[in-house]
Amino acid sequence: MKSIGFNFTFTHTSYHDHILRSQIFPLFFHIWIIFGAFDSSLNDKIQFPSLYQMAPKDSSLHKGMVRLMTHFEWTWVALVIADNLRGEEFLLELTQEMANNGVCVSFTEKIPVSERRHTESHMAFMPRIMASATRVIFIHGDTDSLMILRYSQLPFLPNWKVPQYIDSYNFHGALTFSHLTSEVPSFKPFLRTVNPAKYSEDIVLKEFWHSTFRCMDESEKLKQEECSLNASLETLPLLYFDMTMSEMSSILYNSVYAVAWTLNEMFLVKSEKMYFFFFLKNSKDLHSFLKNIQFNNSAGDQVFMDENKNPEAQYKILNYVTFNMDNEVLVQVGQFIPKAEPGQDFTINEEAIVWGWSGSKIPCAICSESCGPGFRQTPREGEPICCFNCSLCPEGEISSQMNMKHCLKCPEDKYSNKERNGCLSKVVTFLEVSEPLGMTLICVALSFSLMTVLVLWIFVKFQDTPIVKANNRALSYTLLISLTFCFLCSLLFFGRPTAATCLLRQTTFGVVFSVAVSSILAKTIMVVLAFRVTPPGSRSRMWVQSKVSNSVVLICSGIQVILCGIWLGTSPPFPDMDPYSEPGHIIIKCNEGSDFAFYSVLGYMGFLALGSFTVAFLARNLPDAFNEAKFTTFSMLVFCSVWVSFLPTYQSTRGKAMVVVEIFSILTSSAGLLGCIFIPKCYVILLRPERNTQESIKNKVNPRARNHSR
Question: What is the tens place of the pLDDT at every residue in 481-500?
Answer without folding.
Answer: 999 999 999 999 998 999 99
